[in-house]
Amino acid sequence: MEKRRVLTGYLYAGAGAALFSTKAIFIKLAYMEQSNAALMLALRMAIALPFFVGVGLYAVYQLRQSGKPLPGWSLTVRALLTGFIGYYISSLLDFEGLVYITAQLERLVLFTYPIFVMFLGWMFFGARLTWSSVLAAAITYGGLVVVFLSDLPTGGSATVIGTALVLGCAVTFAIYQLLAKKFITIMGSTLFTSIALSGSAFACIAHYIITSHGFDFSSSPRFFWLAAGTGFFATVLPSFLVNAGLSRISPQSTSMIATISPLITISLAVWVLGEPFTLADAIGSTMVIAGVGIYALTDRTPAVPLRQAIEKPNLAAE
Questions:
Q1: Which pLDDT score, from 0 to 100, does residue 103 have?
Q2: C-alpha angle with apex 30: 28 to 36, nearest 5 degrees?
Q3: How far apart are CA 284 and CA 205, in angstroms?
Q4: Model's pTM, two decimal places?
Q5: Residue ranges per domain, the chain?
Q6: Helix/strand number for the chain, H first, E second
Q7: Which of 100, 44, 102 is nearest to 273 (CA)?
Q8: Contacts of 270 (CB under 8 A, 6+ apart)
Q9: Helices 90-97, 157-187: crossing angle, 10 deg rounding
Q10: Interatomic CA distance for residues 21 and 10, integer angstroms
């Protein structure tokens, strides 16, 4: 029974990672129709919003049935602000970045967010930093540089702008991950995710209304259905699948399974979008995936913190 539970967890996590990988493909296909990041993001979140509100209401119902207290207004507002960082600012930077760069480069840049979690956690949240994690970061960003330099001659300044925007997305999503941990512990992952995503969905819709000076959400049928696909197949469904996987297997195992995400995005980008895939892309992509994989794998086992190794060197080595 336990083996079946673990296997099911791997299947759920793998399916969730695969569906998350399709986001950039949906967006790039939509931009072929109409290059409007704000509208794409607003429609995506409008499609996803009813699902997250429904799940949130069910989570509240379960709390009432169990007699547990509901989160107070202060906690709810702080959860909303955390979601604002992770799914409004972060998503906006990501969608804008995809205007300028390929789906392959976007996925590789965004895939580096666990490394930002590591460094920001060490700097501001008292997390440990190990030599193996620093090595993983060096490999990851070395690979990213290889892919970036490969795309630079063709994309020029657009590659620089797009990469910078998606790096900003990775940083803000890493901040969200670090801040979210406390709220998930207190509120539970289902209720927190519903509050965070519902609040950010309203922010994304409001952003479009304000920047477009009106309530005109008209688009071509193809653009709308691609936005709807992004909202359901690349947002709602994978969110629930990954959560279902996390309930059965460890976060580290889920992180390792997530390494298939760039591979799927790259394959779809070449097959569906016709993006080129060069030897430099292959080398850089392998390095990025390997670096994040090493970090996820070595994070499972205890290691000597880097700060401790610097402050208290091994006297035997002298």
A1: 93
A2: 95
A3: 36
A4: 0.86
A5: 2-317
A6: 16, 0
A7: 102
A8: 104, 276, 277
A9: 150
A10: 16
Please state, in angstroms and rounded to a whole number, the distance separating the CA atoms of residues 76 and 54: 17
What angle (nearest 5°) sits at the alpha carbon of residue 11, between those of residues 8 and 17?
140
What is the chain's mean pLDDT, rounded? Answer: 85
Give the three-state DSSP class for 54: helix
Tell me how far apart the alpha carbons of residues 170 and 91 are, in angstroms, rounded to a whole number.
10
* CA 306/CA 133 separation, integer angstroms: 9
Ramachandran region of residue 188, left (φ > 0), alpha (ψ -120 to 50) or beta? left
φ and ψ of 248, to 5 deg: -115, -25
Name 234's Cβ contacts closer than 8 Å, sequence gap at least 6.
19, 20, 22, 23, 26
Contact call for residues 88 and 207 (beta carbons, < 8 A): yes
Query: How many CB atoms sit inside 10 A of residue 3's CB?
Result: 7
C-beta pairs of 158-162 under 8 Å, 24+ apart in sequence: 158/100, 158/101, 159/100, 159/101, 159/105, 161/97, 161/100, 162/97, 162/98, 162/99, 162/100, 162/101, 162/105, 162/106
Structure tokens at 104: 């392959």
160 contacts 104 by C-beta, under 8 angstroms: no
pLDDT, position 127: 78
In this structure, the dihedral spanned by the alpha carbons of residues 104, 110, 115 and 120, taken in order and rounded to 10 degrees, is: 160
> What DSSP designation does 316 have?
G
CB 149 within 8 A of CB 304: no
- CA–CA dist 8, 92 (Å, integer): 33
CA distance to 6, 133, 183, 216, 281, per residue, from 97 (Å) = 37, 27, 29, 23, 19
Q: How is 107-153 classified by DSSP, letter by letter?
A: HHHHTTHHHHHHHHHHHHS----BHHHHHHHHHHHHHHHHHHHHHHH
User: Residue type for 166, please?
Assistant: V
Name residues of the chain where pLDDT drops below 50: 301-318
